[in-house]
Amino acid sequence: MNIERLEYLVEAAKTGSLSKAAQNLHVTISAISQSISSLEEEWGVTLLKRSRTGAIPTPEGEVIINKAIELLQKYNELKEAALGYSETVEGRLRVATIPGPVFLLEQAVLDFKKQHPQVKVEIAEQGSQDIIDDILNDKSDLGIIILFKNRLIEHMDLEFERLLKVKMVAATSLRSPLAFKKVITPAELIQQPVVLYNDDYVKWFMDEFQKKYGNADIVYTTNNRALISRACMNYLAVTLGLNYSFITEPLFPEDDTIILDLDLPQQSPVYLGVIQRKDRTPSTISRHFLERLKHDISELRQMM
């Protein structure tokens, strides 16, 4: 039996649509439909109830599709085991990441590609919830997110591996009146004009900060790093971010930057890490890439 037909069946069941399955697998709708029909004819059972609104597994089909998912997983494990004995690693690696670590990933990807040129690497920059959804729906292999106390993922069939302990810091220009300080208090921060990067952890952090210490003077929130840099350099605004991000991608010239610790008691630990599905054995490609990424992060850790 062609394993491809099982992949078509499982994707159609997951998406609830032959057209979406065809789009995700880069084949025609006819190929998906014919493959499923041939399976139904071979096995003598209707697997999907098809209509204009989509494709829904029949009760019998649901049982069989779950078995097909298990079989495909075992098949992929078999392929990975075989690749483990081969010097050539090939295939696809799909990494989804929040915006901050993109530049942290850059060197790891370049080094990884030198070692494994036949691996196609795809990097998607997304919000944390989109990353979680894509990992759960097999649209990404690895997800890079920030894990903090209000984000619980254990119940989602995901596992989180810590890569780097991080903390929020403030940054501004050396021309700022704050330049002589090493630490900024909440009272001092709320007196400054603040510009923020549009990130879900930064948003959560500022919401919690303002509940405790009062409203900050947030001028704007943006995904444009140049706007943040100019506001800090030209108007002496303050920005907040995770400490590693100011190392991997500085906002300002080296001779015009001041990084300030936040004087906040009892901060909960925050980690940059990678998520994967609990029920999937990590692929050889994923394992090799994570080894490369951990090596680069160990060097960054020494700089922090």
UniProtKB/TrEMBL annotation:
PROSITE patterns: HTH_LYSR
MF-aspect GO terms: DNA binding; DNA-binding transcription factor activity
CDD domains: PBP2_LTTR_substrate
InterPro entries in alphabetical order: HTH-type_LysR_regulators (IPR050950), LysR_HTH_N (IPR000847), LysR_subst-bd (IPR005119), WH-like_DNA-bd_sf (IPR036388), WH_DNA-bd_sf (IPR036390)
Classification of source organism: Bacteria, Bacillati, Bacillota, Bacilli, Bacillales
Gene Ontology cellular component list: cytosol
Family listed: Belongs to the LysR transcriptional regulatory family.
Protein name: Transcriptional regulator
Highest taxon listed in the record's lineage: Bacteria
Domain HTH lysR-type: 1-58
Keyword terms of this UniProt record: DNA-binding, Transcription, Transcription regulation
